[in-house]
Structure formats: structure tokens, C-alpha cells
């Protein structure tokens, strides 16, 4: 119930204005967001690399309905990718892109075109792009765009969400040679018709989807902080005779950092998703909805403003 309310607030511009002016919420932002500038993002990637961790950088922003904003987002990715190349970080660091930030809600073809330009820049920088997944109304359109991008850039990654009832089947059909699929639980408020609502059902779907990805020919990217699912991922990789470099784990910046280092020290590929930029509101609200303990801190920060 509380999760639903917070996720609904994540899309409210009125609440965004209210939260954005609360000073204490800034310190909460710093836990989950690496900074506001390209230099902050590059510094975070460099620091993670020195700890033996991979990174995927996300320039925050979503649900853009202004074409100029979508162009500005594309330009920031181009800028970021040339900085990664110049800093020699392309081997350890890729980028994650939300199609709604490059105009998916304005014009799908323009979003595809901007995403294409980002993929081309990533290819020339020697790295890859993963296209984030947003709510279920754009699942088909997003998968279609990833499939088109993969015709030109074979390594464009997709994201599938275990809470969607369709995901096990999507894993089976997308886990083809050369594919890179990030599997997460899913972070949006979705109706019962399309998504499992009980956490246990989401976890079971996640395990079935791990099996489908590990059995397939692609490169699974298991994005979860859930200790049981990490253990199941390790077990399934062994069962399917996967070499340690044929799959990876992913976690979010600021969440379970000690576990990130532990997995890397044990020889697993561990990638950290690093958001940066000043459009942090929607991202932060989804993180709050994931954990009741965070909600208490967050509510206090608004109350004491
Ligand atoms: P949970 O059951 O939520 O959490 C397991 C444990 O992890 C918790 O008990 C707690 O100890 C810790 N934990 C989890 N969340 C938090 C938090 N916010 N603060 C502190 N501790 C926490 N979702 C999408 O819908 N689309 C995407 O494209 C997408 N990309 C992602 C990329 C990466 C690399 C990751 C890690 C997640 C991504 N997500 C995405 C979010 C994902 O769907 C989940 O909402 C999120 O990861 C929480 O699920 P969980 O698997 O960690 O399990």
C-alpha cells in the first residue's frame, strides 16, 4: 500500500516541487546519486574501477515531453562517452539510457534515432549501452527499439523485469547469442493484470527467468541486492557450466557496497549502476519505495524542513 502511494508520488510534479525544496532530502540524494556533473560521474567510475568494479552510468531524467530536453540528454551522453574514452575507462564502464529521456513519449522514431546516436558514440568509444526498462506501457516499444539497435550494434543491452508475467517468455526468446539481458525485479507501480503483486511471486518469476537466461546463449546480467537471488544466481551459473566471465551481477550505487566488493573479490564480474545529474526525483522515490526503513528517514526529512 505504502509502496503504491510512494510510486504514485514518483510521477507527481507537485510532490516533486515539494520534495525538491526540502534541504534534508539532499543528504539522502547523495547516498544514491554520484553527483550532478559529467566529471562527478567519471570520478565515480574511476573510483569503482580502482576497487575492481565495473560501472554503468545513467544520466538522470525521464518522461521527457520537450524535444530540446531529449536532445540535451543525448548530447550529455555523447559528452560522457568521449570523457570515458579520454580517461581510458571504456573497458570498465558502459552507459544506461532511458528511452523516455530521449523522447519515447513524444515520438518513438526520434527516440530511436537519438538512442542510435548514443550507441554509435559508445561503439566508437569502445563500450556498450544498456537500454533501461520503464513501465509496462512501453515494454513492447522498448524491446522493439533494442532489437533494431542490435541490428547495427550487436551488443546493445535490454532490461527485463521479473514482476511482469510475460518476462520468463521474454527471457527465453531474447537470450540468443550476443544478447545482453539485465534481469531486475522491476521498480514501477503496475496493475495486477500484467504484474505479480506478491513479493514471493516476483522472486519465483526471477528464479525462473535466471534459469531461462543461464540456459540461453546470451550474457545474463543479474541486477539484484537480494542475497537469496544472488546465491541462486551463483548456483545456476555453476549448474549451467557458465564461466565467471559469461555473466555478471549488478547493484545500484550506494546499496550494499560491501557485498559489491565481496562478489568482485570472489572473482565475479560486478557492475554498479551509477546515476548522476540533477533530475534525481523519480529515481530517489523508487529507491524509497523499495525499503520501508528508507521511507521513515525520507518522511522525517520532509517533516523537519
Ligand atoms: P529487494 O527485495 O527490493 O531488496 C533486497 C534487499 O536489498 C533489501 O532487503 C535491502 O537489504 C536491499 N535493498 C534493496 N533496495 C534498497 C534500497 N533502495 N535501499 C537500501 N537497501 C535496499 N528497475 C526497473 O524497473 N527498470 C530498470 O531498468 C532497472 N534497472 C536496474 C539496474 C540495476 C543495476 C539494479 C540493481 C536495479 C535496477 N532496477 C530497475 C530496480 C529493480 O527493479 C528493483 O526495484 C531494485 O533493484 C530492488 O530490488 P532487489 O532485487 O534489490 O530486491
From TrEMBL:
Where would I find the Proline dehydrogenase domain in this sequence? 43-294
What is catalysed by this protein?
L-proline + a quinone = (S)-1-pyrroline-5-carboxylate + a quinol + H(+)
Question: Keyword Signal: yes or no?
Answer: no
Q: Which residues bind substrate?
A: 98, 286-287
Flavoprotein: present as a keyword of the record?
A: yes
Q: What is its EC number?
A: 1.5.5.2
Reported cofactor(s): FAD
Give the matching Gene3D superfamilies.
3.20.20.220
Molecular function in Gene Ontology: nucleotide binding; proline dehydrogenase activity
Quote the pathway field.
Answer: Amino-acid degradation; L-proline degradation into L-glutamate; L-glutamate from L-proline: step 1/2
User: Its Gene Ontology biological processes?
Assistant: L-proline catabolic process to L-glutamate
Q: Where does FAD bind?
A: 133, 161, 185-187, 224-225
Matching entries from InterPro entries are given as: FAD-linked_oxidoreductase-like, PRODH_bac_arc, Proline_DH_dom, Proline_oxidase
Cofactor binding summary note: Binds 1 FAD per subunit.
What PANTHER family has UniProt attached to this entry? PROLINE DEHYDROGENASE 1, MITOCHONDRIAL, PROLINE OXIDASE
Protein known as: proline dehydrogenase
Q: Which organism is it from?
A: Glycomyces buryatensis
Amino acid at each position: 500500500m505504502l509502496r503504491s502511494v510512494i510510486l504514485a508520488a514518483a510521477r507527481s510534479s507537485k510532490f516533486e516541487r515539494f520534495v525538491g525544496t526540502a534541504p534534508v532530502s539532499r543528504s539522502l540524494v547523495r547516498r544514491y546519486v554520484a553527483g550532478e556533473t559529467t566529471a562527478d560521474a567519471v570520478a565515480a567510475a574511476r573510483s569503482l574501477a580502482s576497487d575492481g568494479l565495473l560501472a554503468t552510468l545513467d544520466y538522470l531524467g525521464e518522461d521527457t515531453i520537450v524535444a530540446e530536453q531529449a536532445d540535451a540528454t543525448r548530447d550529455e551522453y555523447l559528452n560522457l562517452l568521449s570523457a570515458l574514452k579520454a580517461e581510458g575507462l571504456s573497458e570498465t564502464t558502459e552507459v544506461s539510457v532511458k528511452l523516455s529521456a530521449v523522447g519515447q513519449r513524444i515520438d518513438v522514431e526520434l527516440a530511436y534515432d537519438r538512442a542510435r546516436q548514443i550507441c554509435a558514440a559508445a561503439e566508437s568509444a569502445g563500450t556498450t549501452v544498456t537500454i533501461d526498462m520503464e513501465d509496462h506501457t512501453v515494454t513492447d516499444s522498448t524491446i522493439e527499439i533494442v532489437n533494431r539497435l542490435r541490428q547495427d550494434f550487436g551488443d546493445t543491452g535490454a532490461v527485463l523485469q521479473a514482476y511482469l508475467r510475460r518476462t520468463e517468455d521474454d527471457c527465453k526468446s531474447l537470450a540468443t547469442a550476443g544478447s545482453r539481458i539485465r534481469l531486475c525485479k522491476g521498480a514501477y507501480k503496475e496493475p495486477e493484470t500484467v504484474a505479480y503483486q506478491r513479493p514471493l511471486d516476483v522472486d519465483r518469476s526471477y528464479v525462473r527467468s535466471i534459469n531461462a537466461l543461464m540456459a540461453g546463449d546470451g550474457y545474463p546480467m543479474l541486477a539484484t541486492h537480494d542475497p537469496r537471488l544472488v546465491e541462486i544466481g551463483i548456483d545456476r551459473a555453476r549448474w549451467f557450466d557458465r564461466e565467471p566471465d559469461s555473466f555478471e551481477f549488478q547493484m545500484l550505487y550506494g546499496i550494499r557496497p560491501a557485498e559489491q566488493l565481496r562478489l568482485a573479490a570472489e572473482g565475479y564480474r560486478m557492475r554498479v549502476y551509477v546515476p548522476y545529474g540533477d533530475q534525481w526525483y523519480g529515481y530517489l522515490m523508487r529507491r524509497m519505495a523499495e525499503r520501508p526503513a528508507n521511507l521513515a528517514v525520507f518522511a522525517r526529512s520532509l517533516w523537519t524542513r
